[in-house]
Amino acid sequence: MQFVYHPEAGEALLRVDVRAYEHLFKVRRVAKDALLYWRNLNDGVLYGYRIQEVGKKEALLERVSGEILEIDASKKMHIGWCVIDPKMIEKTLPMLNELGVSKLSFIYAEFSQKSHKLDFDRMQRIVINSCQQCGRSRWMEMELFSSLQAYLEAYPTSTILDFSQETMKESAEISSILIGPEGGFSEKERNMFSNHTIVGLTCKTILRSETAVVAVASKILA
User: Fold this and answer.
1) DSSP string covering 35-76, please?
2) In terms of Cα–Cα distance, which of 159, 156, 211 is closest to 181?
3) 130 CB contacts (<8 Å, ≥6 apart)?
4) Helix axes 209-221, 86-99, angle to 10 degrees
5) Alpha-carbon gap, residue 17 to 8, rounded angstroms
6) What's the Cα-to-Cα distance from 51 to each of 18, 106, 167, rounded to whole Å?
7) If you count Cβ atoms within 10 Å of the first and of the last residue's Cβ in the chain, which end, N or C, has fewer?
């Protein structure tokens, strides 16, 4: 663990629930006066806190340092990902966060099963844990669109990943890309892409949606 997350990191005094940070206070048994590093995952600052008190339910920490220390990808990358099985999405989130994807937009496409409901609270916890492990200083943002049309209106210059003679190069200057669900895009949806750049991957096999997402992020960011 590179640091510990708390939404109020940066305050002069930080009161934390011992139960919420059981690994620190009950497993590692950090002692009074120990120095711990915390982030709020919003301002890029790494805060040092010294433990003042540790009770049964709450610990009191005093801020002793604060240093701007940005750890993130060298370029901004936004991915639109049509909704698939939430279990597969949750398994893939840490990889995308570690690679440095800046924003992930989920879209209900025509071939997305509308019964698939995303638990954003759970997904945010997954991303927070990923940041704590990999050291990323800002979390990957996430949002949801009810239709592909709504997504394209919000991101009119987004590149489309689909079957195409033009393949995506590793050095391609792509800042936003859309990836379809299992089964791909419908013909109605493809008719919306007339003003968009469409690229494919160099591999000849048909990738699962979650494999394509990681492959694209790796080509652009890794």
Assistant:
1) EEEEE-SSS-EEEEEEEEEE-SSEEEEEEEEEEE---S-SS-
2) 211
3) 93, 94, 97, 98, 136
4) 10
5) 13
6) 12, 40, 54
7) C
Residue carrying the six token digits 């305050």: 11
Q: What are phi and psi of 213, to 5 degrees?
A: -60, -50
Q: What share of the chain is helix, strand, coil (3-state, %, to 5)?
A: 30, 25, 45
Give one DSSP letter per residue of 92-148, joined into a string: HHHHHHHHT--EEEEE--TTS-TT----HHHHHHHHHHHHHHH--SSPPEEEEESSH
Contact 82, 144 (CB under 8 A): no
Question: How confident is the model over 123-147, as pLDDT tens digits?
Answer: 999 999 999 999 999 999 999 999 9
pLDDT in tens, 77-108: 999 999 999 999 999 999 999 999 999 999 99
Q: Which domains does the chain have, with CATH numbers?
A: 4-68 (2.40.240.20), 78-221 (3.40.1280.10)
Partnered with residue 145 across adjacent β-strands are: 107
